[in-house]
Amino acid sequence: MDRVLDPFMDCFTPEVARNVADLRADAETQARLDSLAEKANEGQLSPEERVIYDRFLEAYHFVTILQAKAREFLRRQTSS
Predict the structure, then answer these.
(1) What pTM, to 2 d.p., does this model score?
(2) What's the CA gap between 36 and 66, in Å, rounded?
(3) Could you tell me the CA-to-CA distances from 36 to 45, 54, 61 in Å, in that order?
(4) E strands, 3-74, where?
């Protein structure tokens, strides 16, 4: 994943990196994800909900890694 995402760090400015690091889901999306997570923990997801939940998780993991890259960029900027 690093080989794919490291080039994105060249696109960061401090402002962009801060914006990426601070990204959060809107309230409606977070509520939907929380609901699906609860149903998943209880083993009550329908097949359609499983697909949606899995896609949410894939996106969440991608954004989390990108945020880590943004924070790494910001750490490098402050230590330079």
Answers:
(1) 0.81
(2) 23
(3) 7, 10, 16
(4) none
pLDDT tens string, the chain, 80 residues long: the values are 778 888 878 889 999 999 999 999 999 999 999 999 999 999 999 999 999 999 999 999 999 999 999 999 999 998 87
- Residues 19 and 27 sit within 8 Å (Cβ to Cβ): no
Q: Tokens in use for 70?
A: 């943004």
CA distance to 18, 65, 71, per residue, from 15 (Å): 5, 18, 11
User: Among 80, 24, 13, which residue's Cα sits nearest to residue 33?
Assistant: 24
